[in-house]
Batch of 4 targets.
Target 1
Amino acid sequence: QVHVVESGGGLVQAGGSLRLFCAASGRTFSSYAMGWFRQAPGKERELVTAISKSRSSSYYAHSVRGRFTIGRDSAKNTVYLKMNSLKPEDTAVYYCAATNWGGTYYYTRASEYHYWGQGTQVTVSS
C-alpha cells in the first residue's frame, strides 16, 4: 500500500511555470510506474504524462509535449511534473497516480493505476 500526496499547484499567468510534486509514504516510488492526470471542469480525466518503473520510457500527451517534463527524485522519494509555457487550457486539477504494474512500460489508462492522490489545483490566467 502507498499513500500519494500532491503539492505545488497554484495560480500562474499564461506563459509562466509551475512544478508539481508527488510524495509517497509506505513504499518507495521506484517500485511503481507513475502518471500525472488532470481533470478540468466538465471534462473527463486525461493523462498528461507517464513514466515507466525503470524510467526507460515515458509518454506525453500531444497538448503538453515540449512544455511539460516528468521526473523522479529518488533521494526524496518524489515524482515531479515541471510545467513551462503554461496556457489557460492547462487549468485543471492535477492528480498523481501509481500503478503496481512494472517493467519497462508506461501506462496510459486511469484504470491501470492503483493509487491516487487527492489532486492539486492549477489555474492559469490569461
Target 2
Amino acid sequence: QVQLVESGGGLVQAGDSLRLSCVASGRSFSKYTMAWFRQAPGKEREFVATISSGGGTTYYTDSVAGRFTISRDNGENTVYLQIDSLKSEDTALYYCGARVRTVFPVNTYARREAYDYWGQGTQLTVSS
C-alpha cells in the first residue's frame, strides 16, 4: 500500500507561479512512475504530466507544455509540479498518482488505469 499526500494548492492570481508537492510513503519510491492529473469542476479527471522512476523521462499534456514542469526527489520520496504563468483554466483539484509496476507505461501514461495509487488531491484556484 502506498500513501500519497499532496500539498501546495491555494488561491492565487493569474500570472503567478506555484509548486505542488506530493509525498509518498514507503521505501520503494525510486522505482515508481509518478504522475499528476487534475479535475476541474464538472469535468473528468485529466492527465497533466508524468515522470519516470529515475526522472529521465517526462511527458506533458499539450495544454500545459512550457508552463508546467514535473520533477522528483527520490531521496525525499517527493514529486513536484512547478506551474508558471497560471491561468484561470488551471483551476482544478490536482492529484498525484503512483505506478508501482516497474515498466514505464509508454503507451498508456495518460490514462488513469496506468497508476495504482492516488492521493486525495490539493485544490488550486486561479483568479483572473
Target 3
Amino acid sequence: QVQLVESGGGLVHAGGSLSLSCGASRLTFRNYAMGWFRRAPGKEREFVAAISWSGTSTYYADTVKGRFTISRDNAKNTAYLQMNSLKAEDTAVYYCAARPGPGTIPYSDSAAYDYWGQGTQVTVSS
C-alpha cells in the first residue's frame, strides 16, 4: 500500500515561515510528479504547487508564487514545501499527492493524482 505522510504543519504568526515534508513509501518515487494542495475551512480543495519527477519543472498557484517553494529529494523519497511570508488566508489543511509521469492533464488538476496523504494542518494567526 502506497503511503504519503505529511509533516511540519503547525501554528505560526503572519509573516512567519513553515516547512512541510511529504515522505513516500512503497512508491517508485522518482517516477512520480508531486503536488501540494490545500483545503481551507468552508472552501474547495485548491492547487498550491507541483514539481516534475526530475525536479526540473515547478508550478505554483498565483496566490503563493514568490512565497512558497516546492522541492524534492528523490534519494530520500521526500517532497518539500517551504512556505514564507505566511498570511492568514494560507490557513488550511495541506495535502501532498503523487501522479505518474508527465501526462497531459495540468499539474493543477487534482484528478491527475493517484495517491494522497492524510494532510497536515497549517494555521496562520493574524
Target 4
Amino acid sequence: QVQLVESGGGFVQAGGSLRLSCAASGRTLSNYDMGWFRQNPEKEREFVAFIYWSGGNTYYADSVKGRFTISRDNAKNTVYLQMNALKTEDTAVYYCAARPTYLRGFADNGNTYDYWGQGTQVTVSS
C-alpha cells in the first residue's frame, strides 16, 4: 500500500504561482511512475503531468505545457508540481497518483494508476 498526501494548494491571483507537493508513505516512491490530475465540478478528471520513476522523462497536458513543471525527489519520497502563470481555468482539485513501473510507459489514463491522494484545492481568481 502507498499512502499519498497532497499539500500546497490555496488561493492565488491569475498570473501567480503555487507549488504542490505529494508526500508518499508505505512504500518507496521509486517503484512508481507518478502523475498529477485535476478535476473541477464542471469537467471530468483531467491529466496534468507525468514523470517516470527515475525523473528522466516528463509529459504534460497541452493546457499546462510551458507553465507547469513536475519533479520528484525519491530520497524524500515526494513529487512536486510547480505551477506558474496560473489561469482561472486551472482552478480545480489536484490529485497525485502512483502507477507501478512494471506497467511501463507514459500514461495519461487515470484508470491505470493504483494509488491516489485525497486532493488539494487550487483556486485561481481573476
